[in-house]
Amino acid sequence: MKADVASAGIRKHKFKMEVRSFSGSTKDESNSRESRQHGKQLTANKTVTEEKRSIIMDSSLGTMKEVSDSNNTGHKKQNNIFTVNNANRKAAGCHWYAYLTNQSYESNGVVNLENNPMPSLSQRQKRKTAQQNKYVAMDCEMVGVGYKGQEDMLARVSIVNKRGEVLLDKFVKPCEMVTDYRTSISGIRPHNIENGDDFHDVQDQVKKLIQGKILVGHGIAKDLGVLQIKHPYPLIRDTARYKPLCRLVANGRTPSLKCITHAILGLDIQSGEHNSIEDARAAMKIYNKLSFDWENHFRKQKNRT
What we know:
Blueprint: H1 2-60, E1 65-68, E2 76-79, E3 81-83, H2 89-92, H3 95-102, E4 110-112, H4 121-132, E5 135-145, E6 151-161, E7 166-171, E8 178-180, H5 183-186, H6 190-194, H7 199-210, E9 214-217, H8 220-227, E10 236-238, H9 243-250, H10 257-265, H11 276-304
Parallel strand pairs: 5-9, 9-10
Antiparallel strand pairs: 1-2, 3-4, 5-6, 5-8, 6-7
Helix pairs in contact: 10-11
């Protein structure tokens, strides 16, 4: 009887030991599983951190990098980005100017190179040139025909752009007999116009150059008269008719171009024979200097009418 009890006690002790052993192994496996999951999480976090660092470094070079999607999708998408605030000019090197001139800047400092391209340098230059070519200045030299040369006839016409570059400079063959060359003022001599261009050819060239453009000049109505051309009044800027300028320079009277040029630009012109290119450039320079106030005055006058 005692032997049976002792044998039962031994079996009970072994059973408890087996239960403890099984429980311990279960806990070890659970801990091992948690450890492996924790390790995977650390690896994933490390990978994300490395990706973020890679993006920042590449952005500082102004390069384009494949960026992980942040919306927990696990997928990747291609984003072309250029971070202006992190841009390193030295690292970007020769590509720096290309990025600045060809790409568009957004308020958050990030540029999407595909969707928001800036106009190229050549496109901006073309627009600037087109804007400048909206303005032309013209001046004509005339000779006298008819009785004692009292009537005017076109002998030379010059047109310049906003920068003073010559667009047209033509001597015109006379249609009538010249009775007064007015050389001391016009600078025209017989040989200048004997082999000049046909009047109608020059007239057509002038029409094409000034069509739809703001025409600057001094006493421009007289120049248009000898050319037998009409130009819309809203597109004319006449230094002889701009009232604030007339009041400033000649106390309200019509001032000469020589007087205005000296007063406004501090330059002396027409000291001898006149030159239509020089006079056209002077009129354009005067307009350029006064253009802001001139255009405001013009708009006010237009609104009143």
